[in-house]
Amino acid sequence: MLPKRFDQARPFATLGFVLLGWLFVPLVLKTFTRATFFEIQAPLTVADSFVRDLQTFWSNRLHSKDELLKAGQQVAGLAAQYDFSVQQNEQLQAEILRLENLLKLPSMPAFRYEPARVARRDFSGWWQRMIIRKGANYGITTGAPVVFAGGVAGRVTEVYRYTAVVDLITSPTFRLAASVAGDSRPISYQGGLNNSFKSPRGTVEFVPLDIYATRGVTKRLVTSGLGGVFPPGLSLGEISSLELSPDGLFKYGEVSLDERLGSLTEVTVLVPLNPEEF
Hints:
Elements: H1 2-23, H2 27-60, H3 65-103, E1 111-123, E2 128-132, E3 145-148, E4 151-159, E5 164-168, E6 175-180, E7 187-191, E8 201-207, E9 219-223, E10 235-244, E11 251-256, E12 266-272
Antiparallel strand pairs: 1-2, 1-12, 2-5, 3-4, 3-12, 4-5, 6-7, 6-9, 7-8, 8-11, 9-10, 10-11
């Protein structure tokens, strides 16, 4: 009877010894092993992403000519809107430069915009992240902001040769200094515990007492530009509810995030032109 029980418990004992041995492995070796494993796995992740793009291409070939013509008209309309937005952006940039020179203010952080394709999304209760198909080969750096059409998507946390890992703003590990649009007072934002079947959300803390928000009357949350590489004014989400904190000095609440965060296929990385400034 005893030998039989020992044989049944042998796999668990082996696993326990392996985990115990891993605890005593030097941190440098752990980091090297993890990075090596990720680099070996990266070609498979990127190849799978290219295969999905190819499948999408051939499925689009099955659409009728009328559908393609309508889609082309919509794209032409969007292109015209973007052209006008580019002209407005140039005018605003010129006005910012004029005011900086007039008021002798330091220049705002400069970025290079690097578009990237999403290769894989990795969602769980403890982290929300994705892998993009660009890395050190395109000059992407750790900590670089990642944005999309709806505002902030996340932050680059790991950079490899051909890929990079992005921590989404829905992740509990994501924190930054934010503020209510039109109010310069800083607020602490953090991702929440999200799952795949609910709308994405985050949380805010240290909200001033004179700020009110409900699901019917929300407040737009934007980046403050303090304590990091994120430029000010980027959209984060909508503060949908606020409650008084236990100490009575501030408020805390919930932030409703963009629904598209769970299905992103393209993002833009803001690569700092002068990383030493951050």
